[in-house]
Design brief:
With about 220 residues, this protein is of the alpha/beta class. The chain has a domain of about 150 residues. Helix content is about 35%, strand content about 15%. The strands form three sheets. A four-stranded mixed β-sheet has the order 4-3-7-8. Strands 1-2 form a two-stranded antiparallel ribbon. α1 packs across α6 and α3 packs across α4. The longest helix is centred in the N-terminal third of the chain and has 15 residues.
Length: about 220
């Protein structure tokens, strides 16, 4: 008889599965641009030797924030067929890998007003998120889950995915929950030589940007 074991998926993976299901229905255009950041990395290394308070990921978030602020349309939301909404703040979402009951689980983290934040404060928020003790009651690294979130996991898949479609049709609500830019950083969860271009909800009806982890414009150190 073939031996096997059954493991229970953490509830937090349910939302990830729903997001991927919605993302597969979106029209994505992927582009890959290679940018030399050697000089910037050297500057970061020198700065870290003095203070040890910044990370490359935080620096990248800061640079992308300023770049997008100069090209705000790329992070705008569509409102119906004839309007777009441009939020003044740049809220960047990323995923921090945590361990829950022996399993690695991706947990979303939003860097709010990243265009106004210092690299040091962004680094601290990411590090604090990594060090936070994860429990079953945490669905986001910024707040405890509420009754609505817990109820979400009890719903059938078709109703959960309807929630995401509803969310994407309401820019203010979507911006509050997901921000207007998403960044994936493979280096945060492993040592991989290559790129993974995933599917997400960061496309029309919003015009959210998803960067992995390179930009569409010139990034200035």
């Amino acid at each position: 008889m073939t031996e096997y074991q059954i493991q229970k998926n953490p509830k937090k993976r349910i939302a990830i599965i729903d997001i991927c299901a919605i993302g597969l229905q979106k029209h994505h255009i992927a582009s890959m641009i290679e940018i030399d950041v050697s000089a910037s990395r050297e500057k970061i290394k020198k700065y870290k030797r003095k203070t040890n308070k910044i990370s490359f990921t935080a620096w990248l978030i800061k640079v992308i924030s300023h770049t997008i602020k100069d090209h705000e349309l790329v992070a705008a939301y569509s409102k119906g067929k004839s309007k777009i909404i441009i939020f003044n703040d740049i809220n960047i979402s990323l995923v921090v890998e945590k361990v829950l009951n022996g399993q690695k689980v991706p947990i979303p983290l939003t860097i709010e007003k990243s265009n106004e934040r210092s690299i040091e404060s962004i680094t601290k928020q990411i590090n604090d998120a990594r060090d936070e003790i994860l429990t079953d009651n945490v669905n986001n690294l910024q707040s405890e889950s509420n009754n609505i979130e817990r109820f979400y996991y009890l719903l059938p898949g078709i109703i959960r995915r309807y929630f995401w479609r509803y969310l994407l049709r309401h820019p203010h609500l979507s911006f509050k929950i997901m921000g207007n830019v998403a960044i994936t950083s493979i280096g945060m969860i492993g040592n991989v030589n290559g790129w993974f271009i995933g599917k997400s909800t960061q496309t029309d009806p919003s015009r959210q940007m998803k960067l992995t982890p390179f930009g569409h414009f010139k990034l200035t150190p």
